[in-house]
Structures are given as structure tokens and as C-alpha cells.
Amino acid sequence: MSGEHLTIPTAAIGTWAWGDNGEPGYGYFGSGISRAGLEEIADKAHAAGLHLWDTAIVYGMGRAETLLGEVLKRFARSDYQLSTKFTPQAAGTSDHPVADMLEQSLARLGTDYIDMYWIHNPADVARWTPQLIPLLESGKVKHVGVSNHNLREIELANRLLGEAGFRIEAVQNHYSLLHRSSERAGILDYCRSQSIPFFAYMVLEQGALTGKYGPANPMPSDSDRAGTYNALLPQISALTQKLASIGERLGATTPEVSTAWAIAKGATPIIGVTRPNHVDGLVRASQITLTPEDLVELEAVADTVKVSTRGWWEREMVV
């Protein structure tokens, strides 16, 4: 697997929760994670051919990148691909803030190149996008993408890169059964027409679409996600029940069906993995075949669930 060629897997492994401080109940997700557990995750992912790891400097302000770099040292660099991000809101005041943030990521991850480097959000597309060009020319970045950009912003970024002979090579947005604005805004269609891979994050809505949580079993009260989702769990239960019933027919779990839906829609889901068994579920999800009727049924139920799971960092994609 060469860094020059981005190999798009069926699913990617997300490390947002790795940025939590490691204490159960604290941080964004409230997920307790151990170094030994993360190493087991890496071994399982490696054996299963899940080679693309997605992280960002702002996940725990360096904690996730540092942990990921340490865990992946056990493998040859050519055996995995790294995806990390430039976050405009965390930019420094130097003359080259994108290059400077990249250098910080390279140091934490223990590598001299990044396979996929994203602009995390569209704070100023005309300002930040051209700063990717020298990084591509230097070889420190092999491929570039944009995250949380709407269709007009994606097209602008593509045009700016195109002037230097490069292009947007991936788009990464929040996309789930409960949040389909990228689809409704025509972004998935655009990506298909341009042969641009579309990566979907928050496919499981931070656990709300796993069936693990419900009104009687809410998310950890001292985690950030609880503030968003616990009040919504009663409305979401109709959808998790539909996911579970389809799963029963297929011999699959609720999160596996949620993930298989995104794959069936042509997306590459980025699934947050904090336990080794999550890797097993990701492998099974990639092997599930949902029928067109399954997709219609799931989306019909999802459309009756009148909740908004748009993150505070996101703007609405439909403009």
C-alpha cells in the first residue's frame, strides 16, 4: 500500500474518542480506553485490512494523535494510511499556519508524511485551501480533502487546487440516518459525478444509533454527548427498533446495520473504535447486504424522527 495512492477501504477507523482524558465518564464521549486495549484494536484492524486511521489535532488537543502514533509504531509505515486535519480555529499566527500545524501532527504521529490531509471546516476557503498546495508539492501530504464544507465551498476548493494541478480527493461530512443534509444538498451526487470518495462521520451518532442507549439506559451523564442525545433518545427509539429488527433478520447488530446503511449509500463510514470488539463489528458491517427495501424502510422511519443532531461546529449543508 503506497502513500502515493490512496486506497479507500470499506470503512475507516476514527479516533475522536481517543482524545478523551482516559478516565471513564469524563471527556466528550466518556469512554474509558487503555493503551493495551488500543494496541489490541490496532492488531485486529491490521489483520482485518482496515488500514485507514482518521484523527485530528483538536481531538484532545494532540492526545489522540500522540496515542495513535504510539500504537501504530508496531507496523511498517507502508502498512497503514493516516488521515488528519488542519483546523482553522486552532491556527497559529505565523506566516504558514497550515504547514506549522502539519508539522505538529507529523511529530505526534511519528511520521514524515500524511496520506490524507483535510481542512477541517470552511472558515475561509479562499485563504486556507491554497496553503495545501506547497504541502502537496513537498510530498509531506499525499492527498487532500475538505470536511464540513457545503457544495459551493467544495467546488471553490476544487477550483483553487485545480489551478495548481491538484484536486479535492475526498469529502468528509456528518452523515447518518438522522442527518442526511449532505445527501439532500447534492454533495453525494457531486462526489459520485467527480469520482470523489465521500467519508461519513458520526454514522452512529456518537452511540445513539447503536441500540446500546435508550430512555432507560442513557449515555454517561458527565460526558458531553449526553447533553446532546439523552433528551432525544425517546424519539430515536423507533429508529433503533427498526435497525434491530432488520439486524435480527440478517444476524447482525444494530450498529452493524447503521454502518451497513452508510456503505450501501456509497459512503465510507469513519467509525469511532474504543474497544477491540468494535473492530469485529466493523468487519461484519462491511459484509452485510441491505436490500433496496431495507434502505427505504430505514429512511422512512428516520424521516419520522424529528430531531436535529447537527453538531455545534456544523452549518446546515442545504443552502
From TrEMBL:
GO terms for molecular function: oxidoreductase activity. Keywords: Oxidoreductase. InterPro entries: AKR (IPR020471), AKR_Detox_Biosynth (IPR050523), NAD(P)_OxRdtase_dom_sf (IPR036812), NADP_OxRdtase_dom (IPR023210). CDD domains: AKR_unchar. Residues 13-301 form the NADP-dependent oxidoreductase domain. This is Aldo/keto reductase. The lineage of its organism: Bacteria, Pseudomonadati, Pseudomonadota, Gammaproteobacteria, Lysobacterales.
